[in-house]
Design goal:
The chain is mostly helical and 175 residues long. Helices cover 60% and strands 0% of the residues. It is globular and about 45 Å long. The mean pLDDT is 95. Bound molecules: zinc ion (ZN).
Amino acid sequence: MPSPAGHTIVALTLHVLTARDREEATSLARAAVFVTAAVVPDLDLLLRFVDGRNHHQAESHSIGCAAIAGLLAWGLAIAWRLPRPPRWAAAAALGWASHVALDYFGRDTHPPIGLMALWPLSSAHFKFPWPIFMDIGRTLDVKTLRHNIVAVTWEVLALAPWLVLSWRLRKRRSA
Ligand SMILES: [Zn+2]
């Protein structure tokens, strides 16, 4: 699984690419919805402390959960009387789905290998056969720390140029 850094860069890229005008592209609230939805799925790691079982990359890493996140954002946007509730819903759903997509291309060393990407339609685990991103170690020793620094550096090098490019495209479109 890629780190929160990788998920944040992809979420911001999608935020910029899907903004319909300059106002939306520079909206911190909209960027925050994208990033939050893209980072939150990995909180499933904490469920282990609730019942002692591994829930990582299960239901939370699926298009079903992305749809639920979108519906939740839609409901909150209506409750808070925000303009254009479907736009907030799309931001949350797309941000969440971006997490699923990025993890699909990441290396996984913790069984069950892969993610339950099509839940609730299927409980099968899916994994890209040639991982692009390294896994992130979950222990606090020096070797893991060194590995994680390399993994995050690679994510930033591979993904940040797309964010810069999307921002340039956005600027050219609004010029
Ligand atoms: Zn994940």
